[in-house]
């Protein structure tokens, strides 16, 4: 047996909004990046759990101290709870993938973890520490790089990963990207949610809905450009169920993403050597949950028209693109790239 064959290989995408895991044994799991601890003894008695994850945590949030530890793409410095939440989340993902069983029976596990570019810059050390004792070998990379790796877009390509907390850009130059190959914007899905929430609040002052509901509406009805039809939702206004038209608010909130993302994309393309710029423009990859907004890819293509045009392809599987890329890298990585972790 080769050295590699003795290892279970794992790709993890640790996201602000969702985190996914895939393994060389064929497991694919995703969980919303929420971690919640029961606030008191009553909550603990009802929930019968020490910690809850994902939708389970969101649904029971009144009884929990809920953390979304990678919010804004940063592992917030100084918060022990966020630090603990990261470890719980990683450990939960590995549980879902059957990793503890593999290690108990003597198998070795190697993981590539993709994190938002900003978290990689600021807090790689925290992610590393959170993995201690959970796996045997580790590589931490930026999420857009993992996406590029998984699509084999390693040379003269750019990944635009529009997630929840941040939009991350990464130009691929046929090697591990450096600081100057990457950019991060805080204009991303959460920012759209906040705007939609504010716009709707202004228009319907008596409305009472949570940001979670507003996000659900966005995910169902988002678009940039021409409206696919009238968007109506039903909400309580001053306690009375009412049907409202939110087409304009959805359009305005989603379209606000266009200009800052296009500007940063063009700027990063222009910062590269001129003989490669044309190639990069023809090879833009739109990834992340917000890549599902209909019309987004076309918007970015149009933004490249004055510069000689370009092509944007939208990843087929935004939920797993990062984790799949991590697994692909795990399969290729030589022994020397792996960091050995203490137990
Ligand atoms: N169908 C959809 N239309 C518009 N936005 C979506 C859709 N599905 C998911 N999103 C948004 O994508 C974002 C999450 O993207 P994701 O790549 O999972 O983020 P992260 O990597 O930061 O966790 C959220 O803002 C979510 O609301
Ligand atoms: Mg992501």
Keywords:
single chain; alpha/beta; Nucleotidyltransferase, domain 5; 3 domains; 24% strand; binds adenosine-5'-diphosphate; binds magnesium ion
Overview of the structural elements:
- It is a single chain.
- This protein is of the alpha/beta class and 343 residues long.
- The chain is built from 13 helices and 16 strands.
- The chain has three domains: 4-149 and 320-340, ATPase, nucleotide binding domain (Nucleotidyltransferase, domain 5, 2-Layer Sandwich), CATH 3.30.420.40; 153-187 and 257-314, Nucleotidyltransferase, domain 5 (2-Layer Sandwich); 189-255, ATPase, nucleotide binding domain (Nucleotidyltransferase, domain 5).
- It has helices spanning 41-47, 54-59, 80-96, 99-104, 117-130, 143-150, 189-203, 211-221, 247-255, 258-270, 274-281, 296-304, 321-332, and strands at residues 7-14, 18-23, 28-32, 35-38, 52-53, 64-67, 108-115, 137-142, 155-162, 167-173, 182-185, 232-237, 240-245, 284-287, 312-314, 339-340.
- A hairpin with a 3-residue loop joins strand 1 and strand 2.
- Helix 3 (80-96) crosses helix 5 (117-130) and helix 10 crosses helix 12.
- The two termini are 24 Å apart.
- Bound molecules: adenosine-5'-diphosphate and magnesium ion.
- Adenosine-5'-diphosphate binds at residues 15-18, 163-165, 189-190, 215, 218-219, 222, 288-290, 292-293, 318.
């Amino acid at each position: 047996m080769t050295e590699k064959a003795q290892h279970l290989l794992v790709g993890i995408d640790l996201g602000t909004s969702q985190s996914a895991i895939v393994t060389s044994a064929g497991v694919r799991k995703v969980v919303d990046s929420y971690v919640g601890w029961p606030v008191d003894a009553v909550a603990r008695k009802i929930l019968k759990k020490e910690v809850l994850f994902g939708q389970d945590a969101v649904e029971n949030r009144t009884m929990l101290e809920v953390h979304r530890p990678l919010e804004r793409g940063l592992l917030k410095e100084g918060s022990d709870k966020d630090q603990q939440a990261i470890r719980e989340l990683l450990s939960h993902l590995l549980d879902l993938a059957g990793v503890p069983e593999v290690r108990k029976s003597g198998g070795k596990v190697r993981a590539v973890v993709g994190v938002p570019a900003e978290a990689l810059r600021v807090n790689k050390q925290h992610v590393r520490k959170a993995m201690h004792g959970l796996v045997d070998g580790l590589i931490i990379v930026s999420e857009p790089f993992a996406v590029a790796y998984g699509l084999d877009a390693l040379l003269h390509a750019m990944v635009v990963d529009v997630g929840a907390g941040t939009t991350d850009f990464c130009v691929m130059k046929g090697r591990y990207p450096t600081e100057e190959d990457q950019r991060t914007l805080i204009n991303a899905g959460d920012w759209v949610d906040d705007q939609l929430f504010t716009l709707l609040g202004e228009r319907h002052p008596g409305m009472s809905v949570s940001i979670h509901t507003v996000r659900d509406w966005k995910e169902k009805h988002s678009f940039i450009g021409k409206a696919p039809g009238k968007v109506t939702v039903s909400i309580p206004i001053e306690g009375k169920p009412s049907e409202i038209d939110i087409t304009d608010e959805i359009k305005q909130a989603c379209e606000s993403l266009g200009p800052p993302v296009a500007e940063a994309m063009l700027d990063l393309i222009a910062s590269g050597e001129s003989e490669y710029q044309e190639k990069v423009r023809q090879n833009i990859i739109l990834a992340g949950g917000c890549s599902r907004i209909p019309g987004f890819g076309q918007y970015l293509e149009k933004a490249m028209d004055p510069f000689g045009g370009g092509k944007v392809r939208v990843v087929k599987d935004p939920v797993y693109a990062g984790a799949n890329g991590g697994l692909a890298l795990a399969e290729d990585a030589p022994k020397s790239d792996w960091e050995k972790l203490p137990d």
